[in-house]
Amino acid sequence: MITLYTHGTPNGVKIAIALEEMHMDYKVKLVDIFAGETLTPEFKALNPAGKIPVIQDSETGATVYESNAILLYLANKSGKLLPPEGTPQHDLDQLLYLQASLQGPMFGQRAHFAMFGPEHVPYAIRRYEEQGAIIDDLMNGLLAGRDYLMGDALTIADVSFYGWYAFARRSDYVSADHKNLVAWCDRMAARDGVIKGMAATPTNPLPDRRAA
Ligand SMILES: N[C@@H](CCC(=O)N[C@@H](CS)C(=O)NCC(=O)O)C(=O)O
Fold first, then answer.
1. Which of 7, 11, 107 best tests ligand 1's pocket when mutated (most atoms within 8 Å of CB)?
2. Which of 34, 83, 127, 177 sits 20 to 30 Å CA-CA off 152?
């Protein structure tokens, strides 16, 4: 049994979606990041960085943090949501690194400055909205002529990028001009595992976006 410590946030929803898509048994322990519950000594014993998501696997005794490390752990354990046999490992790794080092931080700062920051800083809002648009262009290109990032079937790369896109769409960030990206978002949102995973990790209403 997998215990998932999470909250209804972009990184938090990824793991519930993956567990649903992999048909794995799990239970959710909600950790309220806005109430500082990630910063307690008990939580930092699970993840010294004080961030959700984290999983514990009662079968192996493993505790794993960092959402993409968790996705890889679950995919390797279940044999599901991996690219087709024969795909070089680096094809998957590069997408997971791109998500963790580019999309996550840029979308995260965009949301922070445009919705959550205590000060209105137009330059920061503009900067991260521009960065977000560059990533949308990149995704639109990667998805040309394919249903999912690695071909015809869903992989953990899609799940990883979709966590942030689920929220970006709610804030109206994804332009209709990015047709491949919009179609992929719709395809993802309609999946049973995505619907169930999102429902397992309820989200707070998002504040309105500030003008750049
Ligand atoms: N690189 C990490 C990022 C995790 C992360 O930033 N989690 C956020 C929620 S999406 C969090 O726990 N924030 C609470 C805090 O910073 O106190 C991952 O992919 O798991």
1. 11
2. 177
